[in-house]
Amino acid sequence: MPRLTIIDPSVRISDQEGIDVIQRVWNDEVHLFRPPLFAEWPTKSELRAADVIALLGSVASVNQSHDWLQRLQELLFDALQRPSLACIGICFGHQLINKLFGGRVDFHSPDHQQNSGIESARFSPNRLGTSTRYSVIVAHSELVVET
Known about the structure:
The protein is of the alpha/beta class and 147 residues long. It has helices spanning 16-25, 35-38, 44-49, 67-79, 92-100, and strands at 4-7, 30-33, 52-55, 86-89, 104-107, 115-123, 132-140, 142-146. Helix content is 29%, strand content 29%.
């Protein structure tokens, strides 16, 4: 039975609606951790037991210096070394995974203004599903500038 581990790095309000959607469509075991909000941390053995990790969004920046972020980076870097692990990063999660593997995240504009709106996104076929196009709400000040 595939085990999904959800890590919600929200620092103000948990993305409970998004978590509920993921839990409804995932037909197997789900484990949820909210490190910054509730000090809920996965152990290394819990991450080793995961078949899929979903790292959600946050208003925090991957470039900020927080104790919780440093700890999360250490845990994830070790877990992501396993070739059989599937991982999806959403917004902050995508940026953090990129940074962990040597990429760079920076402001998308010189004035540091937030880019927000609705954009079309295509998800490539992968172990989690087929190729699909979705309309997604975006609100970012930073983006991956180098992989």
